UniProtKB/TrEMBL annotation:
Pathway: Amino-acid biosynthesis; L-lysine biosynthesis via DAP pathway; (S)-tetrahydrodipicolinate from L-aspartate: step 1/4; Amino-acid biosynthesis; L-threonine biosynthesis; L-threonine from L-aspartate: step 1/5; Amino-acid biosynthesis; L-methionine biosynthesis via de novo pathway; L-homoserine from L-aspartate: step 1/3
EC number(s) reported in the record: 2.7.2.4
Superkingdom to which the source organism belongs: Bacteria
NCBIfam families named in the record: asp_kinases
Provenance organism: Arcobacter cloacae
Keywords: Amino-acid biosynthesis, ATP-binding, Kinase, Nucleotide-binding, Transferase
Protein name per the record: Aspartokinase
GO molecular function term, any single one: aspartate kinase activity
Catalysed reactions listed for this entry: L-aspartate + ATP = 4-phospho-L-aspartate + ADP
Biological processes annotated in GO: homoserine biosynthetic process; lysine biosynthetic process via diaminopimelate; threonine biosynthetic process
CC per GO annotation: cytosol
UniProt similarity note: Belongs to the aspartokinase family.
Domain Aspartate/glutamate/uridylate kinase: 1-282
Length: 454
C-alpha cells in the first residue's frame, strides 16, 4: 500500500509543527510521497506567508486593499525572518535557504501575473527545501521533487493554472515507489510549456496532492490539516459536534457547496475518478482516524451532516402563467448571468419562480436587476427576502428514507422555528431549508439534536 500525504499550512507553520509531521511520516513507511504547503499563520505571524508574498508581488496593494497596514518592505522582512527562524529552530544552516530566497524576492525582471505567480510559489518552494533538508539531516532518506524538475505542467493562466494531461505521464516516470526513498514535493505550483512558474488557485496544495495520488494510482491520499475531519455540523456553532467517519465524494461535494470548507473540491475530482480514498486527518491529533471519503459506502445513516450557508437572499417572482411560457426560465437566468450573479435553486410552479442567490452579489445591482427583469419578462411582482441561512441536510440514506424530511419539519415546528424555503435536490440525497438568519443557529442545533444524535 502506498500513500500520498499532504500537509497544510497549519501543519508546517513552525518548527514544532514540522517535527510533528516528521513523526507522522516516520510512523508509516507507506507514506512515500509528501506534499507541503507554505507556512501558515502562527502565534508570532498574524498573516500567512503566502499573503505576505502576494503583498510583495503587488508592491503592498494586497494588504492595502484589505485595510491592513503592512507595507511591501514589512512583508519582505517578515518572510525572510520567518525562514530564518525555521532554519534556526531546526538547526539548519540558513545560507542553504536565505540567500536564494532573497535573490528570488528581489527578482525585478518579472511583470504582472508572471511576477505574482513566481512570488506566490516561493512559500511552498522554500518550505519544501527546508523540510527536505531537515528530514535527511535526521536520517530519513528523502528526495526533493520540484515541479519544475519533474515537469508538473499547467496551463498558461499564471494564477489559476490547470493540470495538463502530459503531467500524469511525467509524474509516473519520475517517482520510483518501490525504492526506500521518501519524495517531498512543494504544493500549489507547476510550470507552463515555456518553463515559467504557474500557480493553481488558493488551496492548490490540495490539488497537487490529489493529482499526484491519481497519477501514481496510490491506495490512499491523506490530507493532514488542523481539524479531526469533516464534522456533522459546524463545530464553531455546536462544540460537541461529531466527526463523520465515512462520506462519499458526492456527499462531501454537497456539504462543501454549502459552507463546509475543509478541502479543495477540485482536488477530489481525479481521486473520485480513480476511486482513491481520501483520508482527512489532524496533524495535532494523529491518533484520530479522521474522515474517509469514498466512492461508495453502505448507507447506514439517513443524514450524515448539516451544512449552513449564511447571507443568502431569495428572489420570488410572480407572473400569471409563467410556468406555461416557453423560455421564461432561460431568459430569467440569462439576466442573472448578465449581472454576473451566481444562482442556486429554482423552485417553481404555474405562476411563481424563486431564485436563491448570495446576498453580497446583489449589492449595487438589485435596483437595475429588478428593472431589467420587469422590463424583459413583464412580471407582475418581485419580492426579495434577505438575510437567509440555508441549512442543507445531506446523506445517501435519504434516497431510501425520505420520511426524514418529516422529522426535520416537525422538529422545527415543535420549536416554533418558521422556514422561508424548502427544496429537495434531484439526486434525493440532500434537501435545503431556508431559515431567517437570526434563528439559524437555533435551527441548526434543533436539527442536529433530532436527526444526528439518535
Amino acid at each position: 500500500m502506498i500513500k500520498v500525504c499532504k500537509f497544510g499550512g497549519s501543519s508546517v507553520k513552525n518548527a514544532s509543527q514540522i517535527k510533528k509531521i516528521i513523526e507522522i511520516i516516520k510512523e508509516d513507511k507507506k507514506r512515500k510521497v509528501i506534499v507541503v504547503s507554505a507556512p501558515g499563520r502562527d502565534e508570532k505571524y498574524d498573516e500567512k506567508i503566502t499573503d505576505h508574498l502576494l503583498n510583495i508581488a503587488t508592491n503592498g496593494n494586497h494588504f492595502f486593499e484589505q485595510k491592513i497596514d503592512i507595507s511591501k518592505e514589512e512583508s519582505l522582512k517578515t518572510t525572510i525572518n520567518k525562514y530564518k527562524t525555521l532554519c534556526k529552530d531546526l538547526n539548519i544552516d540558513e545560507k542553504f535557504i536565505i540567500n536564494d530566497l532573497k535573490k528570488d524576492l528581489e527578482n525585478s525582471s518579472l511583470k504582472d501575473e508572471e511576477k505574482t505567480a513566481f512570488f506566490l510559489s516561493r512559500g511552498e518552494h522554500f518550505n519544501a527545501k527546508l523540510i527536505c533538508e531537515y528530514m535527511n539531516k535526521i536520517g530519513i532518506k528523502t528526495k526533493l521533487m520540484l515541479p519544475e524538475k519533474f515537469e508538473f505542467l499547467l496551463s498558461d493562466n499564471f494564477t489559476d493554472g490547470k493540470i495538463l494531461t502530459v503531467s500524469y505521464e511525467n509524474i509516473k516516470n519520475s517517482f520510483d515507489l518501490k525504492s526506500d526513498i521518501r519524495y517531498l514535493v512543494p504544493g500549489f505550483y507547476g510550470i507552463n510549456k515555456d518553463k515559467k512558474i504557474v500557480v493553481m488557485s488558493r488551496g492548490g496544495s490540495d490539488l497537487t496532492g490529489g493529482e499526484l495520488a491519481y497519477a501514481l494510482d496510490v491506495d490512499i491520499y491523506e490530507n493532514w490539516t488542523d481539524t479531526n475531519g469533516v464534522y456533522e455540523v459546524d463545530p464553531r456553532i455546536i462544540n460537541d459536534a461529531n466527526v463523520i467517519s465515512r462520506l462519499t465524494f458526492k456527499e462531501l461535494r454537497l456539504l462543501s457547496a454549502k459552507g463546509f470548507n475543509v478541502f479543495h473540491f477540485n482536488a477530489m475530482l481525479n481521486c473520485k475518478k480513480g476511486k482513491i480514498p481520501i483520508n482527512i486527518r489532524n496533524t495535532n491529533n494523529p491518533n484520530h482516524q479522521g474522515t474517509m471519503i469514498l466512492s461508495e459506502r453502505v448507507p447506514m445513516e439517513d443524514v450524515v451532516g448539516i451544512a449552513k450557508l449564511d447571507n443568502m437572499a431569495l428572489i420570488h417572482i410572480q407572473k400569471d402563467m409563467l410556468g406555461e411560457e416557453i423560455g421564461f426560465s432561460a431568459k430569467l437566468l440569462k439576466i442573472f448571468s448578465e449581472f454576473k450573479i451566481n444562482t442556486y435553486h429554482y423552485p417553481t410552479d404555474k405562476d411563481d419562480i424563486a431564485i436563491l442567490v448570495e446576498q453580497e452579489d446583489l449589492k449595487g445591482k438589485i435596483n437595475n436587476l429588478r428593472r431589467q427583469i420587469e422590463k424583459e419578462l413583464n412580471t407582475d411582482h418581485l419580492h426579495v427576502t434577505y438575510n437567509l441561512s440555508i441549512l442543507t441536510l445531506v446523506g445517501i440514506g435519504l434516497k431510501e428514507n425520505s420520511f426524514i424530511i418529516v422529522d426535520a419539519i416537525t422538529a422545527l415546528k415543535e420549536n416554533n422555528i418558521p422556514f422561508e424555503m424548502f427544496d429537495m435536490s434531484p439526486s434525493k440525497i440532500s434537501f435545503h431549508i431556508g431559515i431567517t438568519q437570526n434563528v439559524s443557529d437555533v435551527a441548526l442545533k434543533t436539527l442536529q439534536k433530532k436527526l444526528l444524535n439518535k
